[in-house]
Amino acid sequence: MDKKERGKYENAILYFAKYLTPRQLGKTKLAKLLYYFDFISYRDNGKPVTGALYYKQEYGPLAQDLTEVIGSLVAL
Questions:
Q1: Is pLDDT of 2 > 90?
Q2: Against a cut of 0.85, is the pTM above it?
Q3: CA angle at residue 19 from 16 to 22, to 5 degrees?
Q4: Cα–Cα–Cα angle for 71, 76, 25, nearest 5°?
C-alpha cells in the first residue's frame, strides 16, 4: 500500500471513529465498514478507495493491514 492509499485508509478509519461511539464501533464492525466502503466504491467507480487487500475470516472480510494501521493511529 502506498502513502496516498494509506492516508485514505487512515482517514476512513478516523471518519468512522468520529461518528460512532466506542460501544458501537468494534474491530469487527470497523472491518466490515471498510470492506463495504471499498467495494461500493469499486462497484460505482471501478476502483477501491483504500486499496487494501481483504481476506476471508469467520465473521467477515478483514483487511490485511488493519491491525497495523490502527496501531499507528493509536500511537499518535
A1: no
A2: yes
A3: 80
A4: 55
Residue 48 to residue 44: CA distance in whole angstroms: 9
- What is the C-alpha to C-alpha distance for residues 55 and 62, in angstroms, rounded to an integer? 6
Grid cell of 52 as nine digits = 487494501
Residue 50 carries which side chain, given as an amino acid letter? T
Q: What angle do CA 30, 53, 1 make, to 5 degrees?
A: 100
Is residue 36 within 8 Å of residue 48, measured between CB atoms?
no
Rounded to whole angstroms, the Cα distance separating 67 from 46 reads 26
**C-alpha to C-alpha distance for 53 and 1, rounded to whole angstroms:** 9
18-74 pLDDT, tens digit each: 999 989 999 899 999 999 999 999 999 999 998 889 999 998 899 998 999 999 998
